Amino acid sequence: AAAGLSYVGAYVINTYKSYDNFLQDKYAVLPAVIIICVAVVMFVIGLIGCCATFRESRVGLGLFLAIILVIFIAEVSAFVLGFVYREKVKTDVQGTMRSVFEQYDGKNPESTVVDYLQEQLHCCGVKNYSDWTTTQWFNSTGNNSVPLSCCQQDVKNCTGHLDQPQEL
């Protein structure tokens, strides 16, 4: 389990590099660091449990039980806090995404990240393609279209025009 958590934490940190323009708060990687720390603690606790079982130590097994109970309480607390603050996180991420979409010009690094995000997640805009109608890029191009990264990958000759939303 500790090795699995270590892999997940490292994967999240590695993936974070692709989306760091959307997650301007550097504390966004904090959960991944916490996951890795939990993996290390789990390894140590597992080692204590194995040694206590091998030696048939009542004190060691009692310590192991106490540690497991503390971890369970911490997990329940984390779940409750995640449930309580989920809307705040959602609002913050959407606000940051909207500001990055506002900076889109098709050339700057933020534009590359927006295109990458839309292609990888098979989406268009923050909520849908109509989000593009309020951006400076949409108004400056004047061709009533969204970036080509909004196009479905299996559609040939997609132009991104809003009069063909089935292609987006």
Q: Could you explain how this protein is built, in words?
A:
With 168 residues, the protein is mostly helical. It has a domain at 90-167: Orthogonal Bundle (Cd81 Antigen, Extracellular Domain, Chain: A). Helix content is 64%, strand content 0%. The protein is built from 6 helices and no strands. It has helices at 2-19, 30-55, 58-84, 86-102, 109-121, 136-141. Helix 1 (2-19) runs antiparallel to helix 2 (30-55). The longest helix is centred in the middle third of the chain and has 27 residues, at 58-84. It is elongated. The two termini are 41 Å apart.
Q: Which key features would you list for this structure?
A:
Cd81 Antigen, Extracellular Domain, Chain: A; 64% helix; 6 helices; Tetraspanin/Peripherin; Tetraspanin_EC2_sf; transmembrane; transmembrane helix; 0% strand; mainly alpha; 168 residues
Which class do the helix and strand fractions yield? mainly alpha
CATH class of the domain at 90-167: Mainly Alpha
The CATH architecture of the domain at 90-167 would be Orthogonal Bundle
Instruction: Tell me the Rg in angstroms.
Output: 23 Å
pLDDT under 50 segments (min length 5)? none
Report the sheet-strand fraction: under 5%
Average pLDDT taken over every residue:
81
